[in-house]
Protein: Probable transcriptional regulatory protein BGCPKDLD_2081
Amino acid sequence: MAGHSQFKNIMHRKGRVDAVRSKLFSKLAREITVAAKLGTPDPAMNPRLRAAVLAARAENMPKDNIERAIKKATGGEGENYEEIRYEGYGPGGAALIVEAQTDNRNRTASDVRSAFTKSGGSLAETGAVAFMFDRVGVIAFAPDVADADTMLEAAIEAGADDVRSDADGHEVTCAQDAYGEVSKALEARFGEPRRTGLIWKAQNTVDVDDETGEKLIRLVEVIEDQDDVQNVYVNFALSEALMEKMSA
Structure:
């Protein structure tokens, strides 16, 4: 495992212990509200909203919280959030893409810049690192919904580009413009996925030593701690030893 998937697994395990649950729920609720405002409030008809709801369920967000976030959009309540992408570099030259939702562009830019600077990174111009990533759709299923061969065959038939299957489950990736059809076809066959959405996937990963890897993990933690930051994507790969150490 490398890059986005490897790193997010570590952050997810750490998050179970370290993250402040109320902050996580706040970010999930914000994405649900934004997704519902941009499209229909029906998750069955709004792929982005469906992805947001699935993400909330995966973190055990109460059903009432989810419904309240959707009602905020339909009732015209809450702030109007602007979506912004930031790009930058971390220790060892690793590239990062940061997605944020904000009602105050100046505040968020200042907070993100400060987070990079504090942890040995630097904010770059838009487009500086995005060319090293592809915007792709991801549909993830539990390992018991199918064996690897069955999932691969179904994914190919649906128009996907790649499938990674291991003990943790199946992760199907596809082109952004094929995401709707691929996710619909796979869900019809295997049921509701446990995670789905559009991500930035690194075209290639950069191997870093453990010292640099720890600095990069701290950088991402500081960035993710910002209230307006929704997602952070990276292009570095960590050693198995550091993965075990950070997951312990």
